Amino acid sequence: MHILSRFTLAAVLSGLLAGTALAQQAAAPVASGQAPAQTAPCGGDLSAFLAGVKAEAVAKGASPEAADKALAGAQIDQKVLARDRAQGVFKQTFTEFSSRTVSKGRLDQGKQKLQQYASVFDRAEKEYGVAPGVIAAFWAMETDFGAVQGDFNTRNALVTLAHDCRRPDLFRPQLLALITMVQHGDLDPATNTGAWAGEVGQVQMLPKDIVAFGVDGDGDGHVSLKTSSPDAIMTAGKFIQHLGFKRGEPWIQEVTVPENLPWEKSGFDSGMKAGDWFKLGVKPRDGNTKFADLEGELVLPQGRKGPAFITYPNFNIYLEWNKSFIYTTSAAYFATRLSGAEAYLKGDPEQGLTDVQMKELQTKLKGLGYDVGDIDGILGGGTRDAVQKEQQKHGIPADGWPTAALLAAL
Which Gene3D superfamilies does the protein's record reference (predicted)? Predict the structure, then answer.
């Protein structure tokens, strides 16, 4: 579940990433006491690189024995490199993705897990202030409650990504943290498997965060997010608290909207409070307006005629968890369903653009000076912001949803 940019299961859930299986490159183990000629931050001879990692780990307090055990037999995994370089494609709409991920089967299983581990969820809420539905929804979204945790050797994945010079500053600390986990007896480097980017366990966390926020939920003296559901639940609660979740506050709330609103204020960073929207005729479906004084953003995943939500400050933890707007909104919605909310109203969204049309739109927006990122056909934050500004210029309701009318106007 690590949140740097969500490398793994958000994409896997949608069948969106593909990796090519290539041969593995073997590497010699690090001999105990071997001193590296240099720190070898990335690239070059793998043995020298691993020796540098060992030296750094020992300098930071790890035992030489733990470093040797963690790194012995490490290999470069070409499948990891292929995944890392794959172009992730996330082109489903909110209704498509959320219908797939927030299925009846998952909801039923989530309710069963909430009952099965009720005492653990209660403890997590008392200690960290995080609602059970929030933790359970992430648990479901990440691994189907532990059923799909990934089959890449975690040690090899982190060695591969730390040795590769694409993002060594991101992954070398994760490799050092893995050595710490090995020293604590919380991970077997030879057999532990997880996601291709080194994430581990039922809630998919990177080793550095497991070391920092790991909780022994079942009292066995170890933190095992892979095999222990209580450990996973408690650790997720502590981590979500760290991300800024505020006790007793909502995260997202479904609303209905009138035909006319200042649509240009929808989306993020409006400076509005939930009560400001309520005064304009936006109505919570559950009738609850007691959080009117909190900051509230009107979020329209498929424009003003589709599903509509107010997001509260707690929604920010979802954006920390994953940068994909569709994934985060689906995860937040899932948490409300597990907390008793009804299924959202799908409405009648305007027809969106095809992949070819989206790329044409992005090309035109880029030509107008907007930063839309890559011309990839994906409706990301930069493209949404640009769409909203151009809609306003052309007298189209500025709800951030690109349509053929906007493309024609450009």
Answer: 1.10.530.10, Bacterial muramidase (1.10.8.350), PGBD-like superfamily/PGBD (1.10.101.10)
pTM exceeds cut of 0.85: yes
- Joined together, the tokens standing for residue 161 give 């990504």
At residue 283, what are phi and psi to the nearest 5 degrees?
-125, 125
Span 271-284, mean pLDDT? 97
pLDDT tens, position by position, 249-271 = 999 999 999 999 999 999 998 89
Closest CA to 9 of 142, 140, 138, 98: 142
Rounded CA separation 239/242 (Å):
5
What are the φ/ψ torsions at residue 299 (nearest 5 degrees)? -110, 125
pLDDT of residue 2: 42
Q: Do 60 and 137 touch, CB atoms closer than 8 A?
A: no
* Residue 91 CB neighbours (<10 A): 17
DSSP code of 221?
S
CA distance linking residue 52 with residue 408, whole number of Å: 57
| Contact yes or no for 235/215 (Cβ under 8 A) | yes
Type of residue numbered 20: T
**299, β-bridge pairs:** 309
> Cα angle vertex 409, ends 404, 410, to 5°?
100
**Around 118, how many Cα atoms within 13 Å sit in the side-chain half-sphere?**
4
For residues 161 and 51, give the distance between their C-alpha atoms in angstroms, rounded to a whole number. Answer: 16
Query: By C-alpha distance, which of 406, 403, 204 is closest to 306?
Result: 403
* Beta bridge partners of residue 224, listed in sequence order: none
Tally: H helices and E strands in the chain: 18, 6
| In the chain, where the domains are located | 252-338, 355-409
pLDDT per position as a tens digit, 144-176? 999 999 999 999 999 999 999 999 999 999 999
pLDDT in tens, 338-392: 999 999 999 999 999 998 999 999 999 999 999 998 898 888 888 999 999 999 9
Cα angle value 390/301/334 (rounded, 5°): 160
